[in-house]
Give the backbone structure.
Amino acid sequence: MRQAGRYMAEYRALRERHTLLEICRTPDLATEVTLQPVQRIEVDAAILFSDLLLPLEPMGIAFDFIKGEGPAIDAPLRTEADLARVRRFEPREALSHVLDAIGQVKAELAGRVPLIGFAGAPFTLASYAIEGGHSSSFAHTKALMYGAPAAWHAFCALLADLVGEYLAAQIEAGVDAVQVFDSWVGALDARDYREFILPHSRRIFERVAECRTRDGAPVPAIHFGVGTGSILGELREAGGEVVGADWRTPLDEAWAKIGSDRAIQGNLDPTVLLGPLERVFAATDDVLERAGGRPGHIFNLGHGILPSTSLEHVQALARYVHQRTRG
């Protein structure tokens, strides 16, 4: 989770010369950053370096990244009229730089490890567009969701169509799997998720299910959210061969909610990596013991690597998991 980033010296050096959006929009730079963790850590897959907000700009929702604060939307959508003004676009044209980066990364990887593409899910994209940035209450988002349900559903349906087609384009470009990030959907309870989100997220996974990799294989899809312990069953219902679990729910309990017929991704607390290695390894043992050696467990963090994390700890974690799980 969040393989590339500020915990790596080579990434920080690149960021001294380029903004995050410049890296995302320049295939050579996005390729370089995607490959950085593959070259330094024993990861089993590469994750495309991009940002889940990229589809917002061609929709007419301008944004930038403010140092120390994260993404900021220039003019947040706060009314039904605002939602109605957003534009549909063709991802293969408007986001062609992402697809070009995929082609370059695949060529550089030369089959060493698979490449995972990704996109944001409707609730998370909508909440950024409506709140204007990160939120703890999602008050503006929920006010529109509850107060203007028809406009909300029309907006989320558009997001689902665009995201589904964007992922299809990534698959055509060569990714081996995709991940749908609904980072903030844990702000909803099960009833609201079912009413306001599930049909739209399901549409994304249905579109992915229509796709095949270049060798004709089905494309595995990972469905990930944060704080979703109470709605894991709903995430499973929405779709994805793999459902992600964060660290708040023990892995075996999360898997029981997801169902043993689905794979699970998770779920080490990323802050554990800030502690001594003996604690990292003990927490890792707990996750692996809860998985019980059953097929379908993708060992991962429960969310992204924090910028203050030691690269050496990340390297040691990957080695340790391989030692524990290989032969």
Remarks:
- The CA atoms of residues 79 and 144 lie 7 Å apart.
- The chain is about 50% helix and 15% strand.
